[in-house]
Specification:
By secondary structure, this protein is α/β, with parallel strands linked by helices. The protein is 49% helix and 12% strand.
C-alpha cells in the first residue's frame, strides 16, 4: 500500500512541531489547568516555568500553548498573548509594561509617550505624560487584563538577564495581586533555574514548574508509529521497538528516525517498513547524531574535554547520580590532576551547561541529557568503547 500522505510529516528541526506530540499528555493537562484558571475572571494561576535539556521539546510545548490560546481564529481567542525576547528583556517593571503595551516615545512630542492599549487583535490608542507614565500605563495594563486574560511567553529564558527576569516575575505577581488575569510562561534549558536564583525573586520557587526529559519507550514508539500509520505506512512491532530503543527517548532523534524511515519506504513504494529500511535509516541517524555531538563538544578546549570524560567515568553515569556524588567525582579528578579551584567550578558548570547531566524538578538525582552523548564524551577521553 502506497503512503496516503505524499509529504514527509517528520520535522527534525529546532522547535518544529512533530506530527504527533507523544508522551506529553500529563504536561498538557497541567498547562490546560493553568490556562483555565487564568481565563476565569480574576483567576490567579501561578506562573509557569518550563525547562529541560536542549531538544526535549520546550519550544514545541510553547507552540502547543500558543495554539491553545489562539482559539479558532484571532477574533474569538479567549486570551491575548505577548512574546518577549529573552535577549532584549528590559531590566525594570516600567519598561516591561511598555513592552507589553507596545508603547513608543513620540519624537515630535518628547514629553508624551503613546502606545496601543491592547495586546490582542482589538487595540486602542493611549497617550500619557512622562510624569504619569508608569502609573497610567500600569493601570491600562490591569484594565486590559480584566477585559481579556493575557499570557506572556518568553522562550530561551536561560539567556535572560536575572534583573529583568526578576522584574518580569514581580510584575506578574503584582498584576495578580491587583486582580489581573495574567499567566507568565518562562521556558529554557536547565540553566534557567540559575537565572531564577540570581533574579532574587524568592516566590519563583512557588511557580508551577514542569521539567521535560526523555520520553519513555511506549511514547517513543508512538511518536513514529502513529504518523506512519496515518500516512499509510505499516511497520513491524519488533522493528519499531528497535528504533524506539536507539532513539533513547530523545525527541529530536525520533524525528530523525521518522524522516529517514518515511523517505526510504516512500522511495521503495512498499508502504511498509522492513529491515533494510531500518538499517539504511540507522546510518543516516548515526551520521546526524555524531555530527551533533562533535559540534556540541567542539567549543571545549582539549583539557576540558579530557577532564569532563574522566569525571563522568568516576561518577558512574550509568546509574542514579546525586549532586554529592558529582561533586566528589569532580574533587577526585581535580586532586589527582593537581588542577586549580577555578577548574573545579568550570568542570561543574560545563557538565550542567552542556546538558551532559541535569536535575529534573523534584528529583534528588541527576540524569543524562542524552545517554549516548555521555558515551561520546567518555569515548573521546579514552574511557569507553567506541559506539555508533
Amino acid at each position: 500500500m502506497a503512503p496516503a500522505v505524499t509529504g514527509n510529516p517528520f520535522t527534525p528541526g529546532a522547535g518544529l512541531s512533530p506530527p504527533y506530540l507523544a508522551g506529553r499528555d500529563e504536561e498538557k493537562r497541567q498547562i490546560g489547568e493553568l490556562l483555565t484558571t487564568t481565563q476565569r475572571s480574576g483567576g490567579a494561576a501561578p506562573d509557569l516555568v518550563l525547562f529541560g535539556p536542549r531538544g526535549t521539546g520546550k519550544t514545541v510545548m510553547l507552540a502547543w500553548i500558543k495554539e491553545r490560546i489562539r482559539g479558532h481564529n484571532r477574533s474569538d481567542s479567549p486570551f491575548r498573548h505577548k512574546e518577549l525576547d529573552a535577549g532584549e528583556l528590559p531590566a525594570s517593571q516600567r519598561d516591561i509594561v511598555r513592552e507589553l503595551l507596545n508603547v513608543r516615545i513620540d519624537v515630535a512630542r518628547p514629553d508624551k509617550v503613546e502606545g496601543e492599549a491592547g495586546i490582542g487583535p482589538v487595540r486602542g490608542r493611549g497617550s500619557w505624560s512622562l510624569e504619569q507614565t508608569a502609573t497610567s500605563m500600569y493601570e491600562t495594563l490591569v484594565a486590559e487584563c480584566a477585559r481579556q486574560p493575557i499570557v506572556i511567553v518568553m522562550d530561551e529564558s536561560h539567556i535572560a538577564n536575572p534583573q529583568g527576569c526578576g522584574a518580569l516575575l514581580r510584575l506578574s505577581q503584582k498584576l495578580k495581586t491587583d486582580g489581573a488575569s495574567v499567566l507568565t510562561v518562562l521556558a529554557g534549558t536547565p540553566g534557567l533555574m540559575d537565572v531564577l536564583k540570581a533574579a532574587d525573586a524568592t516566590f519563583s520557587e512557588r511557580s508551577h514548574v514542569i521539567s521535560l526529559g526523555l520520553l519513555d519507550a511506549a511514547s517513543s514508539r508512538s511518536a513514529i508509529e502513529i504518523p506512519m500509520r496515518e500516512g499509510g505506512i505499516e511497520a513491524d512491532g519488533v522493528l519499531l521497538e528497535e528504533v524506539a530503543q536507539d532513539s533513547q527517548g530523545y525527541p529530536w532523534f525520533l524525528q530523525l528516525w521518522g524522516r529517514a524511515l518515511w523517505l526510504n519506504s516512500s522511495e521503495s513504494g512498499r508502504g511498509e517498513i522492513i529491515r533494510e529500511d531500518v538499517e539504511h535509516a540507522r546510518e543516516q541517524v548515526n551520521a546526524h547524531r555524531r555530527g551533533m555531538y562533535e559540534f556540541r563538544a567542539s567549543r571545549w578546549k582539549r583539557d576540558l574535554k579530557s577532564w569532563l570524560s574522566e569525571v563522568l567515568y568516576h561518577v558512574d553515569s550509568t546509574g542514579p547520580i546525586t549532586r554529592t556524588a558529582l561533586d566528589d567525582a569532580i574533587d577526585k579528578v581535580v586532586d589527582e590532576l593537581g588542577l586549580l579551584p577555578t577548574d573545579r567550578s568550570n568542570i561543574r558548570r560545563e557538565i550542567l551547561a552542556s546538558d551532559l547531566l541535569w536535575l529534573p524538578w523534584g528529583s534528588s538525582t541527576l540524569m543524562p541529557g542524552i545517554p549516548s552523548f555521555v558515551n561520546y564524551v567518555l569515548e573521546s577521553g579514552g574511557w569507553g568503547e567506541p559506539s555508533a
